């Protein structure tokens, strides 16, 4: 007999597994289905999705290792610390990263058991809907089972966007997954795409000694960022040795005995060639919906391949939801998590909600860039009157003590009401600092509210208060 659930989640990535856990907490019968083994040693599907297995978590592990190596090699002398010749064991670094991923994946499976979630390993596809109940077939290597669900959440995530004329072999031409598995430092590395993924992966291998060039079709660097952040990050990333060629048009990539030759036209239209040992293609991601059998239930995708949903992630079909990278909005793990919680609570009869205006963005380079809310360009485009305050970390005692006083905090507030509209940070710990700014926007704080809150001294986050004070031109330490 086919087993029936209150909720079935297709995809155990950041949004899917969180939705499953929350639904289990709320007393619903839940199954979460995953088909991707993500190169697990036992070749069995495992939870966590792209973020845990080949994205956020492994890349941050490598960023941490490479940052520590660079600090030892280049930045201990100023602290009076003398070291001998440092060496990097790339294989050990990669193995450590893999250990972190495996530990977290096992942790998710434990949480499934704790919350009575059935974790089904296999590929799910719809086979129909009858009397408001969705039928699905789940195929694994050696079996096929059918299950039914009153509510279904599609959380199938995204996959790397393909570059025409470039075949990903994850040996010479790599996507984000292959770039996490290098067993030696390439002498020359070309990264196609100077966005978040390209900058982070390029930074890892540049720190370890690679000559890194980033090519990007966009004429502007980090165009989604506030212009002040884009300008500062370009200056700092270039100063670290990353090379950029923006506004290019990639022609083709030819494999050679040495690696690959990338042919392209630069922003002036001139033909160029770049020879590289490795190529990382990081030109964005697209929603993944192949093989879901959506035609069996009459679900239509939009022109870009996304599942159309409303503000509560409902599709056009009853009791069918979609979350995360497969729907509109930023492709961020924490955005998917919030949507998963919202949908689980709605299914349980509660009132779920996501404030899409208060979702933080982070680039985990060194320094990091983090922001939440509106940029100055957006406010000018919308015709909204605003005021701005900025405070540099070069005037922050904790940053100077750390020996890393790059960057600033910028606060944007409404010109009349003083409502905080956006906060933008470039700092070694911007990822941790953006939390205060996100909370401020969530609770509709004014810049005066932040300026009146006592911030501990000495800390980096004092700079947020100083920037809030600077909105009314009364910063105390500049």
Automatic annotation (TrEMBL):
A Pfam family annotated for this UniProt entry: Pyr_redox_2
Entry keyword annotation includes RNA-binding: no
SUPFAM superfamilies associated with the record: FAD/NAD(P)-binding domain, FAD/NAD-linked reductases, dimerisation (C-terminal) domain
This protein's UniProt keywords: Cytoplasm, Disulfide bond, FAD, Flavoprotein, NAD, Oxidoreductase, Redox-active center
Domain called Pyridine nucleotide-disulphide oxidoreductase dimerisation: residue spans: 359-468
Q: Which reaction does it catalyse?
A: N(6)-[(R)-dihydrolipoyl]-L-lysyl-[protein] + NAD(+) = N(6)-[(R)-lipoyl]-L-lysyl-[protein] + NADH + H(+)
Q: What cofactors does the UniProt entry give for this protein?
A: FAD
Annotated EC: 1.8.1.4
**What other facts are recorded?**
The active site is a redox-active disulfide bond.
- PANTHER family found in the cross-reference section: DIHYDROLIPOYL DEHYDROGENASE, DISULFIDE OXIDOREDUCTASE
Task: List the protein's name.
Answer: Dihydrolipoyl dehydrogenase
**Protein species of origin:** Massilia suwonensis
């Amino acid at each position: 007999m086919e087993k029936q659930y209150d909720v079935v989640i297709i995809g155990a990535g950041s949004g899917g597994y969180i939705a499953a856990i929350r639904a289990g907490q709320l007393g619903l019968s839940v199954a979460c289905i995953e088909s991707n083994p993500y190169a697990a040693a036992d070749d069995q599907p495992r939870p966590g999705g792209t973020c845990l297995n080949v994205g956020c978590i492994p890349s941050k592990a490598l960023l941490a290792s490479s940052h520590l190596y660079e600090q030892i090699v280049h930045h201990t002398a100023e602290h009076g610390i003398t070291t001998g010749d440092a060496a990097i064991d790339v294989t050990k670094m990669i193995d450590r990263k893999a250990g972190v991923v495996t530990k977290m994946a096992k942790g998710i499976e434990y949480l499934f058991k704790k919350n009575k979630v059935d974790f089904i390993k296999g590929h799910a596809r719809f086979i129909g809907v009858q009397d408001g109940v969705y039928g699905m077939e789940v195929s694994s290597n050696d079996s096929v089972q059918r299950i039914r669900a009153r509510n279904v959440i599609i959380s199938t995530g995204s996959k790397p966007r393909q570059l025409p004329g470039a075949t990903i072999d994850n040996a010479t031409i790599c996507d984000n997954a292959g770039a996490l598995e290098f067993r030696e430092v390439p002498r020359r590395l070309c990264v196609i795409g100077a966005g978040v993924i390209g900058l982070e992966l390029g930074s890892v291998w540049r720190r370890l000694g690679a000559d890194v060039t980033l090519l990007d079709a966009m004429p502007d660097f980090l165009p989604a960022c506030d212009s002040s952040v884009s300008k500062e990050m370009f200056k700092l990333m270039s100063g670290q040795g990353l090379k950029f060629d923006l506004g290019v048009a990639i022609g083709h990539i030819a494999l050679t005995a040495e690696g690959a030759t990338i042919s392209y036209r630069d922003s002036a239209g001139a033909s160029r060639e770049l020879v590289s040992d490795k190529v990382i293609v990081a030109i964005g991601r697209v929603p993944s919906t192949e093989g879901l059998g959506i035609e069996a239930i009459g679900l239509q995708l939009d022109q870009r391949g996304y599942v159309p949903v409303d503000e509560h992630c409902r599709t056009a079909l009853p009791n069918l939801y979609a979350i995360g990278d497969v729907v509109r909005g930023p492709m961020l793990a924490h955005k998917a998590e919030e949507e998963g919680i919202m949908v689980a609570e709605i299914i349980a009869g509660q009132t779920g909600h996501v404030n899409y205006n208060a979702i933080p963005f982070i680039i985990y380079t060194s320094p990091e860039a983090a922001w939440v809310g509106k940029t100055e360009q957006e406010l000018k485009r919308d015709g909204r009157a605003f005021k701005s305050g900025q405070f540099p970390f070069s005037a922050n005692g904790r940053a100077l003590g750390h020996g890393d006083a790059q960057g600033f905090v910028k606060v944007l507030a409404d010109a009349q009401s003083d409502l905080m509209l956006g906060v933008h940070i470039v700092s070694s710990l911007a990822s941790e600092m953006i939390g205060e700014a996100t909370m401020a926007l969530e609770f509709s704080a004014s810049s005066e509210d932040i300026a009146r809150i006592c911030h501990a001294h000495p800390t980096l986050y004092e700079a947020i208060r100083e920037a809030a004070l600077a909105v009314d031109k009364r910063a105390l330490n500049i």
